Amino acid sequence: MYGIIGAAIVAIVIPILLSMVLRGKRKLKQRGVPVQVGGEAGYAMRNARSIKLVEVPWEGATTMAALFEQSCKKHSQEKFLGMRKVISKDFVTASDGRKFEKLHLGEYQWETYQQVFDRACNFASGLLKLGHDVDTRAAIFSETRAEWFIAFQGCFRQNITVVTIYASLGEEALIHSLNETQVSTLICDSKQLKKLAALRSSLTTIRHIVYFDDEDSPDGSSVIQENSNWKVSSFAEVEKLGMNNPAPPNLPIKKDIAVIMYTSGSTGLPKGVMMTHGNTVATAAAVMTVIPQIGNKDVYLAYLPLAHVFELAAETVMLTAGVPIGYGSPLTLTDTSNKIKKGTKGDVSVLKPTLMAAVPAILDRVREGVLKKVDEKGGIVKKLFNIAYSRRLAAIEGSWFGAWGLETLLWDNIVFKKIRSVLGGEIRFMLCGGAPLSGDTQRFINICMGAPIGQGYGLTETCAGAAFSEADDTSVGRVGPPLPCCYIKLVSWEEGGYTISDKPMPRGEVVVGGASITAGYFNNDAKTGEVYKVDEKGMRWFYTGDIGRFHPDGCLEIIDRKKDIVKLQHGEYISLGKVEAALMSSNFVENIMVYADPFHNFCVALVVPSRQVLEKWGNESGIKYNDFSELCEKAEAKNEVQQSLIKAAKAAKLDKFETPAKIELLPEPWTPESGLVTAALKLKREQLKAKFKDVLEKLYK
Fold first, then answer.
1. Per its UniProt record, what SUPFAM superfamilies does this chain match (predicted)?
2. Where in the chain is the domain with CATH 3.40.50.980?
């Protein structure tokens, strides 16, 4: 114990003495530079390292099919895709009687790039022999796994457009997505077969079902009733069919549509975004330049949904760089994950990844778990952690001495090594996207995992390619400079008070242009025309609706959203107006403003209650109060109104995250005279947020 304390003292004192002599001010690195572009007037930036937009990782790799084939040849004998075999399954019964599945998983079993290429070719040939018409589309409806990626690449060997659909998508959205794109072949995991059987009469164009084989998979033919006009085959059967009946490839060109990706949708039915082969390749080529020294010595853990553009782009980057990809799941990720049998290893412990993508919610959970364990240990352990954390924080925030090699080594061995083992112990770079990452969590992961976080900003419509923070950028709260595949332009939004002439930084709507901008929304020219524009030079631009500002070094920060749609911490979109309209059906509500902080996974609400209704309830319930303001402060009154909101939310079929978790009752009505609503009684959201800032902050505590 005394040795540890002595080492800690040495780790602190020596660098401080050195710093008195050697401390210097860091020079600001220019990461983005202004550029003149076409289209609507604005303030535009490009990546400082690339004068010309990057479109391909190397000459000839202009499509996903070409990229896949060339990378597989280049890395033919190296590991590519890995999966863990299920050794055993157990069920444990909780105190409430519910049963939970627990898995004992083995080591990763790997296939080489050549083996994966051969399987993709076999699958492509098998689809043709099965009777799939290459002029129709195939859809993948499954959790992330190796076969998802193989089927995806196999389709491109025959220039088949792939429709991607979240495995968690609701029935109505699933039917809409498949029917709108006229999918003829549906590729799914075995869990989805029963769901599909129940929807058979609503799916009008499907002819073939291909399901992924598992050891306990049901027989597809027995699940889909015999009188169905669907031909049901296992993935292995299609591969074997193709192996015995090889077909020549029918390769796509750059402008062909590779993917129609259905987003989860903020309001109404989901929209299908059309991504060309050129879009996906450009994003991969650009991100390749951002991750330092990426190559086949790295290992990537894949567990996020491949139907989301973030994970799809990340795995395409790994393919491009020749990185092995080991598949896992959020439920088997760590040694303490829900589906991991006690005493056995989670995915990170077995794979020991060096690269990993994460959404903010997962990183938040890692942070909370570490802090909880530190608090439980208490004493000297907690004191050492706090000292180490503050020293590393000082280093990251600009004190040269804090990053000194000896101190780093000592703190790593004393404190951080065990924390890093939570994610396998070998992480050297993390990609984060899908929702805003809080500065506190970003800094915590930087320090405790000893790895930079590349925080990405992009949308399905930009094929994930827009901005990406660089490995040596120690700031938080920003999303970096434009990727080398695109320009980012700020366009003034006068109505919202954001202009490119603002000081000290230009502000405006974020507009992205370049090689990663997708072809628009499937079968929706009107919506496409609203948000996609082509300038006089032929460059395609997407208007994101986000409000950003450029820092002096060319990095982008997202500061607001034009519309009242907010993406929550877990990536769900919440339309504030839609929720408010639904909750107004409660007879307790005279007016309501729903508020959502993107750094949390729930929303809250400010409610002006109907005085007549609430006072009537209060009197009938025997609540004692002197005036209406006092009644609004009563916990019983808040609970009664909140229960009515929950009832209204259920009637409107709102999701849980759309139902306010906390509310505040405000006795004073909102009038045009107060400046809180318009003459037409529409909410002035910004004014309400400003007036009740303290109330909203209290609701999130």
1. Acetyl-CoA synthetase-like
2. 64-89+101-354
Mean pLDDT (the chain) is 88
Beta strands (DSSP E) in 551-685 are 556-561, 565-567, 573-575, 589-596, 603-609, 662-665
Yes or no: say if 437 and 455 are a contact pair by the CB < 8 Å rule: yes
pLDDT tens digits for range 428-447: 999 998 777 778 888 888 88
Location of structure tokens 């002096």: 552
User: What are the pLDDT digits (tens) for 627-649?
Assistant: 999 999 999 999 999 999 999 99
Listed in order, strand segments (DSSP E) in 69-151 are 79-93, 99-112, 137-141
Q: How many CB atoms lie within 10 A of CB 590?
A: 18
Would you state the pLDDT for residue 675? Answer: 74
The tens digit of pLDDT for each residue in 163-181 reads: 998 877 778 888 999 999 9
pLDDT at 359: 82
| 572-699 to CATH, choices 3.20.20.70, 3.10.50.40, 3.30.300.30, 1.10.3720.10 | 3.30.300.30
Please tell me the class of the 64-89+101-354 domain: alpha beta
Q: Which of 628, 612, 691 is nearest to 665 (CA)?
A: 628
* Alpha-carbon gap, residue 77 to 112, rounded angstroms: 6
> For the residues 236-253, what does the mean pLDDT come to?
97
Q: Measuring CA to CA, how many Å separate 586 from each of 582, 583, 609, 614, 684?
A: 8, 6, 10, 11, 21
**Rounded distance between C-alpha atoms, residue 629 and residue 631, angstroms:** 5
- List pLDDT tens digits, range 646-662: 999 999 888 899 999 99
C-alpha 83/C-alpha 85 separation (Å) is 7
Residue 2 to residue 325: CA distance in whole angstroms: 43
278 token code pair? 């050129």
Question: How far is residue 335's CA from residue 332's CA, in Å, rounded to a whole number?
Answer: 8
398 pLDDT tier (thresholds 50, 70, 90): low
Distance of CA 145 to the CA centre of its chain: 17
For 64, 193, 487, the CA distances from 515, given in Å and listed in that order, are: 14, 38, 9
Residues of the chain with CATH 3.30.300.30: 572-699
Q: Give the residue-averaged pLDDT of 229-241.
A: 94
Residue 456: strand pairing partners: 468
- Considering the chain, tell me which residue range(s) the CATH 2.30.38.10 domain(s) occupy: 32-53+357-425+427-561
Whole-structure pTM value: 0.80
Look at residue 17 in the predicted model and tell me its pLDDT: 45
- How many angstroms separate the CA atoms of 89 and 339, rounded? 10
> Dmax over Cα atoms in the chain, in whole Å?
85
- How high is the pLDDT of residue 264? 60
Contact call for residues 192 and 200 (beta carbons, < 8 A): no
CA nearest 319: which of 69, 549, 527? 69
The CATH class, in words, for 32-53+357-425+427-561 is: mainly beta
Burial class, 344, CB count within 10 angstroms (exposed 0-12 / middle 13-18 / buried 19+): middle
State the pLDDT at residue 163: 97
